[in-house]
Amino acid sequence: MRVKPKKILVTGGAGFIGSAFIRCVLAHQDAIEGVINLDCLSYAADLSNLAPIENDPRYFFVKGDICNQELVQTIVKQHKIDTIVHFAAQTHVDRSIDSPLIFCITNVQGTLHLLEVVRKFPHIHFHHVSTDEVYGSLGLEGSFSEKSPILPNSPYAASKAASDHFVRAYAHTYGLSVTLSHCSNNYGPCQHMEKFIPHMLLCMHEHKTLPVYGRGENIRDWLYVDDHADAIWTILQKGELGQTYNIGGGFEAPNIEILDKLILMYCSKTLVQYENIKKLIRFVQDRPGHDYRYSIDASKIHQTLGWRPKHLFEDGIEKTVSWYLENKFKG
């Protein structure tokens, strides 16, 4: 049985989900003695995401690349790390279609460099954060379970699937302590503007075209980011070594329905006329290989670890729209 985490190295902690995890842990877990945030500060990172905890004496930031194995090893020794939570990744599917090689370097090679460090310090528990996209695409029925075949369809999903396999292989071959998680689409405050929900909100605010792939019929399960952070902490506390856990928000909808809910929420908060925003929708050419539907069966984490999402989609989207209006769209 591993020791409960006290000194955690978080990779990609200035990103959307990594920063939510750090805020969650430091705000609610008094037993934590230190959280070290290793981030190379790529275009999607933003240290202001960590403003609520940046003065916490337990928090340390290190600018660096996960592929710098010597740096990671130094951090591990200097801070006496007992747990690594690995968020750092290239994640935008459209970018992976245009530039797949960087996804291999960051997502696959970066994970391997971290695993090599853990090989040298095998007391460290390694939690790997992955995506439901590794499972491929679904039709109208069924959901992805932890036993679903791995059938990635985009370069991004393929890079995450490869890193998943390496984590499992290292655990099996070298006896490392690992857990893995596959999450559905995250949303919430602090998300980069290239992602669907913040991008649409920005277009509404600037009264620009709202571009929707195909006919907006692609279906996703939506997970509020703070619920995702809480799920990962639950896995670190209670998860069985070597196991994978699917994390879902329990709300599935086509993209066009999500956009309509966003428009309604935006208009209710800004007093802009609904029809003036609705008419900005334009259906554009679908992206190559666009997966039709993702659906998460999260019964394993519900039943074995007792975790369930706390936010209904309506509550989460209200918090999200309010945050962007207050923090990104002033003036």
Q: What structural class do you assign from the helix and strand content?
A: alpha/beta
CATH topology of the domain at 7-190 and 222-250 and 296-310, which one?
Rossmann fold
Oligomer: single chain
Provide mean pLDDT, rounded.
Answer: 96
CATH class of the domain at 7-190 and 222-250 and 296-310: Alpha Beta
Share in β-strands: 15-25%
Q: What are the low-pLDDT stretches, counting only 5+ consecutive residues below 50?
A: none
Radius of gyration from CA coordinates: 19 Å
CATH architecture of the domain at 7-190 and 222-250 and 296-310: 3-Layer(aba) Sandwich
The tally of strands reads 12
Head-to-tail CA distance between termini:
53 Å
Briefly summarize what is shown.
The protein is of the alpha/beta class. Helix content is 41%, strand content 18%.
Written description of the protein model:
There is one protein chain. The model has no long low-confidence stretch (mean pLDDT 96). The protein is globular and about 60 Å long. By secondary structure, the chain is an alpha/beta fold. It has helices at 16-28, 69-78, 93-98, 100-120, 155-174, 196-205, 225-238, 255-270, 274-278, 299-305, 313-327, and strands at 7-11, 34-39, 59-63, 83-86, 125-131, 177-183, 185-187, 210-213, 219-224, 244-247, 252-254, 281-284. The protein has a domain at 7-190 and 222-250 and 296-310: Rossmann fold. The strands form three sheets. The protein has a seven-stranded parallel beta sheet, with helices on both faces. Helix 4 (100-120) packs parallel to helix 5 and helix 6 (196-205) packs across helix 8.
